Write a sequence for this structure.
């Protein structure tokens, strides 16, 4: 199991802050723009045949704005805590 990030440790030890963040996240991710964004990625995932089949792949945005298949861990880790970028 990977070590927790600073923010994960903070939210684990501050229930009020975690509740506040969860409330904000719920509101943000239910906006029309986020729902449209998510549905577009899901549609691309289905078209590529990676949706729900457990292969660990995601559709990822390139710097040119196109979508490509990529492992979910690489896609979701980009611009994370260590700020290492993987160029496509």
């Amino acid at each position: 199991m990977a070590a927790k990030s600073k923010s994960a440790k903070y939210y684990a030890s501050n229930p009020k802050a975690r509740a506040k963040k969860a409330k904000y996240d719920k509101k943000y991710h239910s906006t029309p723009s986020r729902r449209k964004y998510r549905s577009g990625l899901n549609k691309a995932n289905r078209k590529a045949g990676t949706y729900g089949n457990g292969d660990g792949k995601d559709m990822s945005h390139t710097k040119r704005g196109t979508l490509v298949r990529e492992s979910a861990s690489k896609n979701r880790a980009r611009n994370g805590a260590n700020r290492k970028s993987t160029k496509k």
Notes: The mean pLDDT is 86. The helical segments are 6-13, 15-29, 32-48, 72-77. The first strand starts at residue 57 and ends at 61.
